[in-house]
Amino acid sequence: MPQTAGFFYRQAMEERGHAMMMVQYLLDQGEAVAIPGVAAPVTDFADVVAPIRLALEQEQRVTEQINDLTKIARDEADYASDQFMQWFIKEQVEEVATMSDLLAVAFRSRENVELLEEYILREQQGEPEDPTAPPEAGAAG
Ligand SMILES: [Fe+2]
Ligand SMILES: [Fe+2]
Predict the structure, then answer these.
(1) Which of 14, 20, 77, 126 could form a disulfide with 137 if both were Cys (CB 3.0 to 4.6 A apart)?
(2) Does residue 57 form part of some domain?
(3) Distance 121 CA to ligand 1 centre (A)
(4) What is the Å distance from ligand 2's center to 96 Cα?
C-alpha cells in the first residue's frame, strides 16, 4: 500500500516538525529543552482500519494536550505562550479532520484497499506551505 505508507511517512515528518517548533520556541524563550523518550510504536494490526483508528485517537489526545497547554499559558498570564499555542489549536482541527476522513474512507475500503490507495493519491498528497507556521529548530533559513 505505497500511497498509505507515503501518507504516514509524510505525516511522521510533519509531526517531527511540530515538535521542532516547540523546541525552537523554548530556545527562543531561554528555557531548558527536555525531550523524553517515547514508547515503541504499535506495529501489528488486525486490518487496514486499526492503525488509522489508532492515529485518530492519538490526534484527539494531542488536541487535549494542546488545549491543556493553552489553558496553563492563560492561567499563568503567559501571553506569548498562549499566542504560540494558537497555531497548534488550528493545526489540530485540521489533523483530526484529516484523520477522521481517512478513517471513514478506510472503513468503506476495508474489502478493497485499492480504494483507500486511490483516495490518498487523489486527495491526500500533502499540505501546502503554511507561511504562518512557527519556525522549526534546525530548519534551514
Ligand atoms: Fe498530528
Ligand atoms: Fe497537519
Answers:
(1) 20
(2) yes
(3) 20
(4) 9
Ligand nearest to the CA of 127: 2
Mean pLDDT of all residues in the chain? Answer: 96
Using the mean position of ligand 1's atoms as its centre, give its distance from the Cα of residue 108 in Å: 23
**What residues sit around ligand 2, an ion, with C-beta below 5 angstroms?**
95
Which residue's C-alpha cell is 504562518?
132
On whether the pTM is more than 0.90, the answer is: yes
Cell 517548533 maps to which residue?
21
Nearest bound ligand to the CA of residue 19 = 1
pLDDT at 102 over 80: yes
The alpha carbon of 11 and the centre of ligand 2 are apart by a number of angstroms equal to 7
> What is the domain range of residue 88?
2-32+45-123
Residues 6+ apart with CB under 8 A from 46: none
d(CA 2, CA 72): 41
Closest CA to 7 of 63, 57, 52: 52
Q: Choose the weakest-confidence range: 30-34, 79-83, 124-128.
A: 124-128
Q: Is 24 inside a domain boundary?
A: yes
Q: What is the CATH number of the domain that holds 68?
A: 1.20.1260.10
Give residue 44's pLDDT band: very low, low, confident or very high (50, 70, 90).
very high
